[in-house]
Please model this.
Amino acid sequence: MPVSLKIGRMQLPVVHMRIHTIIRAVSLALLTMVGYAPAFAHPQSLCESCEVQLGLGGTYHFWGATGGVVLPVSVNWSGGRYELGLFRISTSQVLYDTKYRNGRLPLAHPYWGMSLSRRWQLIERGPVRVFAGFGVAARTESDELSATRLDFASQLGMRYRFPGNRAVAELTVRHWSNAGIRLPNHGQDFATLTVRLNWGDFGVDRADQITPNELVKSKAALVAANYRIEGTP
Model:
């Protein structure tokens, strides 16, 4: 890539190095959150509404599988309105189509990516919620999927809350691209299935949280009821 290309006043190699640094920092932060996930259950937590999820996914293009295995780690907060995700595309991606030479088009080697998105609820019916999101994505590599390492990120997903709110799963279809700013720009398409960690021990929706005041009131009511029962002849 020509060294003369710049973004603002920065050389592209410098931009790429900074993207690598940012992704490494986010990776470390998310993995730390995974390791100390139970701490988020306490009222004094820095992120009471945070919800960490792990899962598995795969890549595709025009509804045809391209062989990429995706390992996602994400954290969402404020009732799922915001999401920060880290994604490891762990295998190479190849598109098989007869219109290409030898019937195949290599798309991308394994790489790391991250995205930051704002999400909006579209539908909610009982335990099912449908949402859409939009934001930005960063990648450690540029390839046939996108000539740029900073892209736009869009998503459409469905969230299912299991009975008792002890587990939450999200099935999300994602697309990253640079909107044709630079070519090639086939776009990175992938789907992820993620599950909330700790079976509801942390990251509970605000409507389901019990505050310390409510706990004290419940305990006082229980003591009063017990006193009345013991005083009954």
